[in-house]
Amino acid sequence: MRNSIGLCCSAIIGILPLAWLANIPDMPIIAVILFAAVCTGLIPHLSARYIAFGLLCFCWALLNARASLMPVEQWSGKPITVEAVMTRTDGKQNHDWEMVSVEGKVIFPPVGIRSRGGYLPASVCAGQRWRMKLQLRPVHGQLNEGGFDSQRYALAQHQPLSARIISADPITQRCSLRAQWLSAVQFSTQSLPNQGVILALAFGDRSAVNDEQKNLLRQSGTAHLMAISGMHISLAAMVGWLIARLIQLSFPAHRVHFRMPLLASVIAAAAYTWLAGGNPPAVRALIGVIIWLFLRLQGRCWSGWEVWLCCITGILIYDPLTVLSDSFWLSALAVASLIFWYQWMPLPQSVLTTKWFYRYPLALMHLQVGIMVLLMPLQIFIFHGISLSALIANLLAVPLITFAVVPLLLAGLVLTSIPWIGEHLWWGVDRLLALLFTSLSLLPDGWLEVDDRFQLLSLCGWLAIIIHRLALWRSSSFSVIALILSLVVSTMRPEKKDGSWQITMLDVGHGLAIAIIRQGKVFLYDTGNAWPGGDAAQQVIIPWLRWHNLTPEQVVISHEHLDHRGGLISLQREWPALKIHSPLRWAGHHPCFQGEEWQWRGLKFTALWPPDQPVKTGNNGSCVVMVSDGNFRILLTGDVEVEAELAMLKRRWDILHADIIQVPHHGSRTSSVAPLLRAVSGGAALASTSRYNAWHLPSGKVVKRYQAQGYKWYDTAQSGQLTIDINSDKWQINGFREQISPRWYHQWFGVSRDNG
Length: 756
Prior knowledge:
By secondary structure, the protein is an alpha/beta fold. The protein contains 28 helices and 24 strands. The strands form 5 sheets. The protein has an 8-stranded mixed sheet with strand order 15-14-13-10-9-8-23-24. The relative contact order is 0.07. The model has no long low-confidence stretch (mean pLDDT 89).
């Protein structure tokens, strides 16, 4: 047993580096590591074998990472003909596929791809096989500190490519059994208000859950209950076990065997995983159930920690890219927290001996307190907040979902084709969900945004339990006080009083959002784009500000185009006192015209364009601002084009000199004339651009023009978030992809300069 646990630890240590490696080594280096592992394994010592197994797992992880990038290297950037099986669809334009052959050659394992925004020439459903001509693109996501990491998520989901469908023909139009089952349940529940949640619980399809329900689940900390995950798979396994035990009641005693319920539980868990479409959290839970079954059949007494280690090892060996999945770490830490909690803080004996109607509510309260306290560090790191109402909400939601909704839902799945019974079962599930959502809506808004200062402080729960259980407050009281004070002090970051400040160009896709940061406050230049149902402020700017504990005080809106003012309303909703400068002459806006000057926290802002008269609109009406601390200068240009650039140069050549220029109009050929670049005579040019944009920005000619004038070129499509640290006359630019978070899964995949 000890050897097995040692091998598990070696495997986990060997695979974990995949989460922070900057680059994946080439095959010759992997071969050298593999050879070293084999040689080490020949040493007749137990520790050498552990090291060898860890190195083998490290090689396995590297090979999986290289295999995940192979489709990007081989098939992106050119039209190819593939055969693919549809795995998920919204029935309209958004589909998930598994490519099974490319140019007539079978590929194994299949490669996951996504197609968005393209209609197919026939009705669609999961399970269909299509022959298509595709233009494949590597995964690429916006990269900002504290933002959602879509590149990491896509690789963890084994979907490294997105596809534009050029042509498509169905090979087989028959839907899979799961898709037929899903269609039958959709038909049976079409009149129910909570159909979207029912489909999420039954099939893992959360596309139909409305925004109001999603927000309520998030605010109450119960969103984990509405996606098929480890808890639901475990419930299915429990139902399978109970059914098998009931069947055994009719067996003669000599026919009853303990293996039958265990096998039935695995079969039930596998069936529910299949219904979930084999989504990664469900597959991981199924692997855990299978490993648990295997350990039970060994006839040994395994501790909770040993079972946990074996399950984590099995999951990581099955799929090393799981280390990139936030949901995996949430599940793994949740189980570890439960084991730790019940070992170090068990229920008092006085509670265990009380009557059941006291004991069970107290036990559930004890469980929820442990989960809330011990999972807080990871929740803050991933979600940048905690739900203050989660304790009360889960006290109601967990037993309701566990003991009422899921069993009734499983019965509905089995009996949905029986008209009267299926109809009333689904009605019962809907009413229970209605009761849950009504109860959650009565709770106060409990979501609390938390910034990065509180990450260390969130460990206090773990430390408090250890200090209490080991009675360290008696034997080492001074050390305990010093530790707690150090954690509290970590949240009290003093404002910088010196002349240092920062400028951050956020990666907002096609649009512009620049944050000037000084003394914990922010001056924004433009607010990014907007689209139906959202905007750049909600998606990027506000989460970034909250995570860094920054407060915006003023903003310049350069001009009226949506990709520059899209997030303004959301920002005003969060900070109503936000002072707005613009050339738009809108109510409440302070003027931003040529000759205007103002001070903000020791920085001087000078508007160089547009003139107050005549009125200019569109790109050439952009408010151009020079920001200076007396040593360093940056020119913010919005979307000005040639006409405005040349007009600014007349008689004002000398005042345009700056260290850095924000590239006008995202690097379009209609801007950045050579006389302007010579007048600015800067050292660096920063462009806010989006990969795969419809306008193929930035223009290659414009990039070369800047470089020919001695500028160093940076853009958000290549580097993600760009941060300029300024201290007097010294400054440095850091890109997220290269310096802030250089990870192999953050790299620019595909051709080196691909903007269309």
